[in-house]
Amino acid sequence: MSVITIFSGAFCEEESVVKNVLSASGFKLIMDNDIVARASRLSKMSANKISRAFLAKESIFNNFTHEKEVSIAWLKLAVAEHLAADKLLVSGCASRLIPKDLSHVLKVCIIADMKFRMTVAISEEKISEKEAIKLIHKQDEDKTAWIKNLYNKNDPWDSSLYDLVIPMDKMDLNKAVSLIVENAGKDILKPTKLSQKFVEDFLLASQVEVQLAKEGHNVGVLAKDGVITVIINQHVFMLNKLEDELKTIVQKISGVKSVETKVGEGYYQTDIYRKYDFKMPSKVLLVDDEREFVQTLSERLIMRDMGSAVAYDGESALSMVSEHEPEVMILDLKMPGINGIEVLERVKKSSPDIEVIILTGHGTEADREICMKLGAFAYLQKPVDIEILSDTLKKANDKIRLKKVAEL
């Protein structure tokens, strides 16, 4: 039997459509939560962190950690493993990870005009018209970013991405369900040896992509009959060296017969290829109200392959801790508003795994004792030698990595 995928705009009666298609077809439902849970088990990453890949907003540290790309690699593997079965209905963002080459997959998009969606949202959520519009736009923003990321298309409802686009404002529920079930049963959508081979290729490509991501690489991967093509989409100064490293990693994976590399369209753009180095601090939050100092410090750390972001006051820092989960914080003590000692205390209460390095030009011995009792990793005075600070950062990062390994 075929596989059905459904990707829907918010408040387009997706739940009712899915429920009725399942009842009429006897298919098994796979939702984003199922894919995320499987990806979490495979990767040992938290489900919450993986599910952020579906959101438009990226972590401020993503250029250094590639967390979104790593999450997508694990999501692809989870989807590929599910496709070993048939008679599936895959609903949600993860459904768009299935390659277009799989001929036994019926790709369905459910959409409606704003008036229809707004009416449904008001009824279901018991909210005002203004709140409904805001909610729909927010969810559309996430789905637009998701499709842009996967297909480089700005319209998530682009008909070229689907076999069926169903306008729920112009079609009743029963007709929509009948149309999906009828098309899913057509001979052209029945699995064949060739389509099953594409499933195997997708699984192998996903396994390769995950392994490369684990080694810190962010590249595209295609597979055909055991032949792997690795696509480099960012410019790199030593291309031959990178190609050799990629080939060495991929050749060790079971099922790979040969490996070739090529540059993609993105290679000729201005972005520079950056391998994620797990040994280097990559999620460092710098908190200091001296803007010129902290910006210069950030640039000097980036030159040493350490990913950093900047906050200019304690309140902003606490917000960024909650939203972006830095691993190390370099914190000044004397700031307007919430001072450094209060920031340290609140961070260690809410996020005790964050290592905090105090860097101040005004602290006293009493301040040092308070900070160390509150759980600071180190207490340094300005001006500080960049090598001493870098070494302290690396030691804090090592502590974090060792703790993560111990928890696996």
Tell me the layout of helices and strands.
Layout: E1 3-8, H1 14-25, E2 28-31, H2 32-43, H3 47-51, H4 62-65, H5 67-82, E3 88-91, E4 105-111, H6 114-125, H7 129-151, E5 164-167, H8 173-184, H9 193-214, E6 220-224, E7 227-232, H10 239-251, E8 258-263, E9 284-287, H11 291-303, E10 308-311, H12 314-324, E11 328-331, H13 340-350, E12 355-360, H14 365-374, E13 378-381, H15 386-407
Helix pairs in contact: 1-8, 2-5, 5-9, 6-7, 12-13, 13-14
| CATH topology title of the largest domain | Rossmann fold
What is the strand content? 15-25%
Q: Architecture of the largest domain, according to CATH?
A: 3-Layer(aba) Sandwich
* Structural domains: how many: 3
Q: List the helices and strands in order.
A: EHEHHHHEEHHEHHEEHEEHEHEHEHEH
Helix content: 40-55%
Low-confidence segments, ≥5 residues, pLDDT <50? none
Description:
- This protein has 408 residues and is α/β, with parallel strands linked by helices.
- The protein folds into three domains: 187 residues, P-loop containing nucleotide triphosphate hydrolases (Rossmann fold, 3-Layer(aba) Sandwich); 54 residues, no CATH class; 124 residues, 3-Layer(aba) Sandwich (Rossmann fold), CATH 3.40.50.
- It contains 15 helices and 13 strands.
- Strands 2-3-1-4-5 form a five-stranded parallel beta sheet. A five-stranded parallel beta sheet has the order 10-9-11-12-13, sandwiched between helices.
- Strand 7, helix 10 and strand 8 form a beta-alpha-beta unit.
- It is globular, with a radius of gyration of 25 Å.
- The mean pLDDT is 94.
